[in-house]
């Protein structure tokens, strides 16, 4: 649950405010996440170079690599071959289209992450999960730009009955015939690229 706490904005130095408030993305100029690390998380030292990758602390020797995190997403088709498209209910890309997915949790396989995300977001059990491909993505959240590797899978659902949306994340959905997809309406370029790849492969198989 997000909440605002304006009192902090007056009492705390700007650096702390960055992490503690929930100012919408549109009110901040997003920065690569490596540039938001102004202090060493281990000893509190301010490094001579901010924005380097890896982060290196001259005082205690701590290093941190700002590598991409893993995320998964599923191109889910129903028995008629229509694709499940979600309408996003949160930023980034609120109101734009997406497909089910999210960040991998530590200890999960990508397939487990995707099955969990599909269950959480739409309440469906996906089957026939197959790896499609990966595309780099950038996730802009609370003023920080996080590098992400998106792993895409195709999956099927035998029944769409019992679909149940996680309303904090998704406000609506539709099953869309491949030829009717509005790719320009998707929030993330990586989703568009994956759907294009899926459409190419599907038409090659059919043609
Ligand atoms: Zn340090």
Explain what you see.
This protein has 207 residues and is α+β, with helices and mostly antiparallel strands. The protein has 2 domains: 27-67, no CATH class; 69-206, Nucleoside Triphosphate Pyrophosphohydrolase. It is built from 4 helices and 10 strands, in the order ααβββββββαβββα. It has helices spanning 6-11, 14-20, 110-122, 189-206; strands at 31-32, 55-56, 63-64, 69-77, 83-88, 97-98, 101-103, 127-141, 144-156, 170-176. The strands form 3 sheets. Strands 1, 4, 7, 8 and 9 form a 5-stranded mixed beta sheet that branches. Strands 6-5-10 form a 3-stranded antiparallel beta sheet, with no helix packed on it. It is elongated, with a radius of gyration of 20 Å. Zinc ion binds at residues 40, 42-43, 45, 57, 59-60, 62.
Which helices and strands occur, and which strands form pairs?
Layout lengths: L5 H6 L2 H7 L10 E2 L22 E2 L6 E2 L4 E9 L5 E6 L8 E2 L2 E3 L6 H13 L4 E15 L2 E13 L13 E7 L12 H18 L1
Parallel strand pairs: 1-9, 4-9
Antiparallel strand pairs: 2-3, 4-7, 5-6, 5-10, 8-9
Bound molecules: zinc ion.
The site of zinc ion has 8 residues, from loops.
Task: Throw out a few tags for this protein.
207 residues; 2 domains; five-stranded mixed beta sheet; three-stranded antiparallel beta sheet; 21% helix; disordered N terminus; binds zinc ion
Quick synopsis:
This protein has 207 residues and is α+β, with helices and mostly antiparallel strands. Helices cover 21% and strands 29% of the residues.
Sheet with most strands: 5 strands, mixed
Which range best describes the helical content: under 10%, 10-25%, 25-40%, 40-55%, 55-70% or over 70%?
A: 10-25%
Q: Would you tell me which CATH topology of the largest domain applies?
A: Nucleoside Triphosphate Pyrophosphohydrolase
Give the name of the CATH architecture of the largest domain: Alpha-Beta Complex
Question: How widely separated are the two ends?
Answer: 48 Å
Total strand count, please? 10
Runs in which pLDDT lies below 50 for 5 or more consecutive residues are: 1-23
- Which term fits the overall shape? elongated
Q: What structural class do helix, strand and pairing data support? A: alpha+beta
Mean pLDDT: 86
User: What is the N-to-C succession of helices and strands?
Assistant: HHEEEEEEEHEEEH
CATH level 1 class label of the largest domain: Alpha Beta
